[in-house]
Amino acid sequence: MSARNPGMHLDLEWVSKVRVNTQAVLKRAQQIQGRKVAKKQWQAAWLLKAVTCIDLTTLAGDDTPSNVHRLCMKATQPIRHDLLKSMDMHNKGITTAAVCVYPSRVADAVKSLKAANSSLPVASVATGFPAGQTPLKTRLAEVQMAVEDGATEIDIVINRTLALTGQWGALYDEIRQFREACGDAHMKTILAVGELGTFTNVYKASLVSMMAGSDFIKTSTGKETVNATYPIAIVMVRAIRDYFLRTGYKVGFKPAGGIRTAQESVVWLTLMKEELGDEWLNSHLFRLGASSLLADIERQIYHYVTGRYPAYHELPMA
């Protein structure tokens, strides 16, 4: 695994010079969406790769210890054992990348995974998710409590007000403090791109987040009206590439919100491969934030193995 991004001083000159060519971004996004899907024999391999990059997520008001437990069990065995066996993939340790829950449910998830003898990471959203509109003091306390309860990854949300009003210095300082509160836990920074207004703002927020020491940048909370779109992703991964070329540090990317079909997951992998290269095609540097995506991938793998689609009751609930 590459060295963690330590961050750097806030380079406001770099930030202020950013201009994004909207037409070029939209054209590139269309190209990637128009790519032919992998040939049949490779399709299953791409889908299994996608499974290993999923942050299997439940972020609902009615989350309980029992549905968090079920989520954890699904994460440790995401694809039915007999289906994996028929592809000779049953002993390759295929799991999702992590489970992602609210701070109050971290202890439940840690307990379930421990009981299942699994070392799967638990990610927690924090910092006043999803709006980020709570006092800084409580946002920092939330991070610390999630880490104390056993979360090894923290998905923080930025304060969009600071980004929209161009207060990049203040945004940098806040994210820096979140990174400190995370300690050894990896920090994914959610930009809530649907609320940032322009591609240029998305790029600037991406840069500032990386300068402040983010391990990943993530598109959305999944609670905004606009979530992970391909054009926005192009803007964010180009920022990741520029940051890497300037500093030598690789920052991960996580699209989240509205990613529901197996085919979309392959488009996301293609985007990463073409824009950032094979080094980013693993769970250390790429995650898919999703709750219903896994069910569709399992359906498609069932079809790949048996030649037919499963009846509703044939696959365990995702």
UniProtKB/TrEMBL annotation:
GO cellular component term, pick one? nucleus
Give the UniProt family note. Belongs to the DeoC/FbaB aldolase family. DeoC type 2 subfamily.
List keywords of the entry alphabetically.
Answer: Cytoplasm, Lyase, Nucleus, Schiff base
| Chief subcellular location | cytoplasm
Role noted for this protein: Catalyzes a reversible aldol reaction between acetaldehyde and D-glyceraldehyde 3-phosphate to generate 2-deoxy-D-ribose 5-phosphate. Participates in stress granule (SG) assembly. May allow ATP production from extracellular deoxyinosine in conditions of energy deprivation.
Q: How does it assemble?
A: Interacts with YBX1.
Xref: NCBIfam families: deoC
Concerning Pfam families, the annotation shows:
DeoC
Q: Where located?
A: Cytoplasmic granule; Nucleus
Query: In which domain of life is the source organism classified?
Result: Eukaryota
Alphabetized SMART domains for the sequence: DeoC
What is this protein identified as? Deoxyribose-phosphate aldolase
Q: In the Enzyme Commission scheme, what number(s) does this protein have?
A: 4.1.2.4
Species name:
Carassius auratus
According to its UniProt record, in which pathway does this protein act? Carbohydrate degradation; 2-deoxy-D-ribose 1-phosphate degradation; D-glyceraldehyde 3-phosphate and acetaldehyde from 2-deoxy-alpha-D-ribose 1-phosphate: step 2/2
> Example GO biological process term?
deoxyribose phosphate catabolic process
Annotated GO MF terms: deoxyribose-phosphate aldolase activity
Task: List the catalysed reactions.
Answer: 2-deoxy-D-ribose 5-phosphate = D-glyceraldehyde 3-phosphate + acetaldehyde
Which residues constitute the catalytic centre? K218 (schiff-base intermediate with acetaldehyde), K254 (proton donor/acceptor)
| InterPro entries recorded | Aldolase_TIM (IPR013785), DeoC (IPR011343), DeoC/FbaB/LacD_aldolase (IPR002915)
**Per its UniProt entry, what is the enzyme's top EC class, as one word?**
lyase
